[in-house]
Structures
1.
Amino acid sequence: MVSQYQSSPSAKADTSTSTSPLPSVAYLGPRSSYSHQAALECFDQAEHTFEPQGTIADIFTAVQTKSVTYGVVPFENSTNGSVVFTLDLFCDRTRSFRDTFVRGEACLDVHHCLLSSAASLKSVTRIYSHPQAFGQCENWLGVNARGVERIDVSSTSKAAQMVVGDAGAAAIASKVAADVHGLQILAGNIEDTADNTTRFFVLAAQPELRAPVSRGEGEADKTLLSFTIDHQVPGALCDSLKVFKDFELNLTSIASRPSRLLPWNYIFFVEFEGHSDTQEVKIALDELRKYCLNLRVLGSYKDMQRRKGQGYRDSKSKVAENGKTS
């Protein structure tokens, strides 16, 4: 496949600790995780090396220190919402990741399986997985694994790795993980919704890797930013969000995390359609700053959800039209 992300000749990881001259990509490991699969979707294996990391924080650190060129992190799931581990790292409360930005996104269809070395679910007393995976399979677990202990681990592929040879344990992970680790699939497609999708962000820290404004036919961009407001000012959040309406910038995502400076104070995250390098967005952000204590643009990138969203809208339109004629 052709990589979505073409590195400039100077955009490579710090090779003082690496023997590979190719750009490197950090992902949440071990091998066969959904993050690994998303990374392979984004980057050509012939032109990049892939570096598994133990935690999402490790990916941010690897990107910030330039020990890798790119990082791939999960951001949100269509069933279970925001990945709070990633949001907390974007909060950057310790100012550890000031150079790290979002330069791309990828959407991955996620279909979970229950994997085990056991022959059947009857012998399973423990299920391992990532908290997001548990959240995406609540309905199936409530019916088929009620009372079975759930144990959180750092990734679905880590869960699969841990249950190898343990007939009393199972993991929620992908079919790819079953193949890699030689596990039985006790149940397939156990996610709550058939269109279960996780959105990943591609991170970088080298300025030359920032995504340019998309100019191709049918292409569009999005921008992610974080900001804080004075919680003592009535309507402060309303005033800040109204800027997007006034400048006709459509919001695609909004989230918040505790600031940890004061109880019940928050850092807000907003994603909107548009690129921070365009004049209209620059003017809008200047206006937004009037209502914020601080504001940070976390990156602009090509909108890869647009095609998926258009497919959904087309399907919905067909259903509605069918209802009219039936």
2.
Amino acid sequence: MHSYKNFTCNISVLHVNTAFRSVFEMTPNLSSSLAFFFIFFAFASGQNASTMQNTSTTTKTFTLYNHCKATIWPGIITKGDSGRGNGFTLNPGQTAFYTAPTGWSGRIWARTNCNFDKNGTGSCQTGSCGTSLNCSRPSSPPNTIAEFTLGDIDFYDVSLVDGFNLPIVVQPLNGKGNCSIAGCDGDVRNSCPSELSVRSDGKVIACRSACNVFDTDEYCCRGAYSDPVACVPSNYSRGFKQICPASSSYAFDGDATSIITCSASDYIVTFCASRNQTFCSYHDNKVICNDTRSGSKALLPQGWWNLMVTLPLAFILQTKI
């Protein structure tokens, strides 16, 4: 792996209502012109472009989008500096932008069912990273994790090695190389074995890994099983992989869909989504959508004047940094 340094990263949160969610979650039937209209109007309405654009060649922007029906509290830590992590509230339909420099390596995940007071002190049912809104340590299993190492070539994956708390999809934008979409096609909680299930009020809120539950060398890939030849997929990790085929399901999950390499300008990290959905981000004065059928592409403002005249005002945009 790579060596790591401490970096300062920036976060801005874009507050959107339900109508605006169509900008980031586009069905194959939604036209490019319509998608562009919504985002163009958003920026024309007063969005501070400095928080949205990533024009530096030494930084990359992560668009974090909450597609869940409930509020989540994303956590972000830099490897080697987990004591000073980031954390914030992200309501359904909201989007946050996180900028990191080339050379950054870290983790992004969602905390669920949290309760923080006005001082940012509290707790979460899953994904907890200390007792404050800003993470002070790595997340506690079980939780789904998006992992990144940025450089001339980026490495990224969605990891279920520490278990699962909600689906995550990672989509690269404008990248070169493999640049495939990492993550899940469904929700592991719906088919989690009872012996791995974490429940609250009778509902499965997370699914633990076999290593976390049984703590054996065989499941944890340690001792006599501490190499890829000896440590093979278990029935439990195969179950994870079936639902999240483009993910790391156990410690030595090394197939081509596990850890992906790509030279990409930006990434979209979507919570509670599936890989067959299309999402858009704003980069270098363009709206870029990652279409699972045809790859990343920029949307041009063709016909937007007509849309501006005929479409009613459908949303209110507020910004909070």
